Backbone:
């Protein structure tokens, strides 16, 4: 392009070049802005949006039952027995149902009288799901009539029309049978658009677990889920609400007192905030927190969590000083000591249009009134509970003061190590074969089982960017160990030094020396155990490394399939059988040799490099945390002190050991 052409192009840039996305077009253009992503998370987020519309009817006391049907044809149908979406004529000239399903930021949740504490915030839920579905149908039952409309990619095929009960059953022969028994309600059925989503396969477990969580929050609301293809059904109903949720989270832990339930209202300037908290201490060392604002999960906490922590700290210190359990509150315990062994659910309800979050993801609550509400309700309730239950109060404070003593011991142990210069990175451990690169983003470290595999890895690696850290045997089980004991363990201490981040209150992710931490162990029982021990260490004591996506597990091949002219490495029994069949199809008389690798040490350095360490060839599993509470349960079950839950888990999942996963 010449300079004159370039000037002409810039000069002709005018109003006609400004594009306005109409209707639901912005959702299809930028789906991530509305549902987070277009992978399996975004896919399931669509289901959650429709479910929460029904839950909102339960919040305001109209719906009693919410049902989810996973149809074998790929459709998801959600029904409730609430009031039903309004169908009367809207000011825009069409049915209110059509407006709710086809217009962004349209819905009853902006009306404080209609929804006092709904989960929806921006009015894009149902319409966004509609835009991202290749086909969607809605039936609303109001005043004994069935109002129906269907859509293709968010566009209505025809205006809203009244259909007969038989037509409802013809359209929905499975899920319609229950729906027609309701006096009123809404039925929404949709199938995701394959052009939008990378996968359209729903997971029963994901939706089931979401419904269980909603059932805990909505005490007295009945939830059902059906899977047509597998013939599965599960129902959830909890009168105990979040108290039942805490008991469920602690089911495999040793509790030290009954669940404490606190509930109350706080008068803000313009509205009321309902605060509900359930908490219980266990003999564990980690904390489990679940926080919600109007059924919206806030994993990053926010003002309601801050208010709770302030009230807990104040109440326990006041009680401890008053009853002579500590002489001076300055020398007693810190906020971190209160976290050890704590399981807590915080649930606040307030008008939806007043909710404020730090970002569109709604991960952190930002309302200052919520902090005041949580503090006041928890402080008043907990003060009363401690006075009325002295034995439970004593058990809680003994737990907290024990954590304080352990913290001081850990600090002393850490200081002793720091004085030797180790944790500050002054001298890297001799067993570490470091890489030449000093750029963390380009560097990776392999944590390898044993000296044999470590030797092959050291010889086979690319020294420019690959470091090797060999473990001698199985490291300490850090699930049941405090920081002082962890720092005193030579293998774990050397690993902390090699990574460079420090640990505990001195942990600093910006000092991480490698941005790919790869666990490489044998594909046998011992290797899997070592991997689990190391995963436990990272999850419990360096969770930021997992959360930021720096942790991986290497997948070494299980078999080498060889002929005279070729060698193929495969990673499962299924792949082995497929490769053998493929080779036999080419030449039935071909002599095929199959070698099964029992350990990494059986591979020579060249083989280990080609199959497991070469970036172009290797297979790595990135370890992430989708749900912290589920991960906590798994680690508690597998690595905790209770044997029966672990035995049950192994018996239940034994068959998975023979499957390719």
Residues:
């Amino acid at each position: 392009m010449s300079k004159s052409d370039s000037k002409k192009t810039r000069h002709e840039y005018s109003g006609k070049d400004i594009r306005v996305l109409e209707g639901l077009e912005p959702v299809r253009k930028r789906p991530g802005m509305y549902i987070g992503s277009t992978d399996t998370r975004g896919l399931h987020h669509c289901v959650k949006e429709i479910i929460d519309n029904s839950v909102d009817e339960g919040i305001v006391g109209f719906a009693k039952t919410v049902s989810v049907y996973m149809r074998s044809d790929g459709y998801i149908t959600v029904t409730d027995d609430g009031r039903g979406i309004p169908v009367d004529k809207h000011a825009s000239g069409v049915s209110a149902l059509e407006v709710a399903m086809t217009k962004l930021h349209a819905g009853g949740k902006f009306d404080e009288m209609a929804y006092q504490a709904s989960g929806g915030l921006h009015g894009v839920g149902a319409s966004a799901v509609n835009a991202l579905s290749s086909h969607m149908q809605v039936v609303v039952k109001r005043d004994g009539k069935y109002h129906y409309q269907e859509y293709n990619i968010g566009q209505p095929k025809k205006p809203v029309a009244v259909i007969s009960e038989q037509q409802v059953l013809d359209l929905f022969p499975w899920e319609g049978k229950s729906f027609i028994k309701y006096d009123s309600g809404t039925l929404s059925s949709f199938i995701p658009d394959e052009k939008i989503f990378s996968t359209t396969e729903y997971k029963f477990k994901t939706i089931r677990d979401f419904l269980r969580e909603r059932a805990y929050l909505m005490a007295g609301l009945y939830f059902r889920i059906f899977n047509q293809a597998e013939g599965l059904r599960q129902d959830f109903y909890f009168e105990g609400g979040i108290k039942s949720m805490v008991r469920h989270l602690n089911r495999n832990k040793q509790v030290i007192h009954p669940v404490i339930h606190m509930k109350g209202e706080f008068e803000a300037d313009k509205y009321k905030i309902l605060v509900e908290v359930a908490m219980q201490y266990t003999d564990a060392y980690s904390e489990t927190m679940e926080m919600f604002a109007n059924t919206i999960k806030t994993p990053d906490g926010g003002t309601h969590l801050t208010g709770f922590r302030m009230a807990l700290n104040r109440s326990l210190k006041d009680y401890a000083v008053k009853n002579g359990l500590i002489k001076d509150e300055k020398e007693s315990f810190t906020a971190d000591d209160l976290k050890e062994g704590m399981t807590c659910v915080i649930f606040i309800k307030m008008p939806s249009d007043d909710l404020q979050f730090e970002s569109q993801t709604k991960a952190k609550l930002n309302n200052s009134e919520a902090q005041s509400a949580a503090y006041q309700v928890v402080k008043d309730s907990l003060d009363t509970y401690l006075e009325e239950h002295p034995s439970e109060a004593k058990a809680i404070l003994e737990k907290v003061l024990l954590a304080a003593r352990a913290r001081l011991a850990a600090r002393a142990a850490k200081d002793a190590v720091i004085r030797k210069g180790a944790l500050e990175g002054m001298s890297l451990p001799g067993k570490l074969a470091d890489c030449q690169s000093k750029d963390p983003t380009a560097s990776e470290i392999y944590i390898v089982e044993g000296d044999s595999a470590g030797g092959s890895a050291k010889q086979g690696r690319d020294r420019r960017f690959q470091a090797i850290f060999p473990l001698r045997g199985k490291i300490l089980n850090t699930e049941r160990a405090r920081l002082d004991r962890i720092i005193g363990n030579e293998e774990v201490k050397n690993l902390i030094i090699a990574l460079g981040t420090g640990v505990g209150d001195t942990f600093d992710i910006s000092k991480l020396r490698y941005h790919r931490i790869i666990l490489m162990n044998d594909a046998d029982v011992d290797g899997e155990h070592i991997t689990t021990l190391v995963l436990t260490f990272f999850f419990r004591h360096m969770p930021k490394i997992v959360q930021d996506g720096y942790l991986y597990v290497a997948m070494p091949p299980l078999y080498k399939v060889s002929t005279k002219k070729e060698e193929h490495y495969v990673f499962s029994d299924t792949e082995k059988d497929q490769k053998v069949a493929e080779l036999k199809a080419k030449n039935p008389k071909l002599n095929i040799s199959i070698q099964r690798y029992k350990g990494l040490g059986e591979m020579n350095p060249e083989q280990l490099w080609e199959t497991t360490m070469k970036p172009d060839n290797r297979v790595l599993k990135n370890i992430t945390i989708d749900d912290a509470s589920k991960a906590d349960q798994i680690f508690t079950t597998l690595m905790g002190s209770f044997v029966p839950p672990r035995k049950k888990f192994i018996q239940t999942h034994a068959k998975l050991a023979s499957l390719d996963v």
Q: What stands out?
A: The chain has three domains: 25-236, 242-412, 420-556. Residues 77 and 189 are 4 Å apart (CA to CA). DSSP finds 22 helices and 22 strands in the chain.
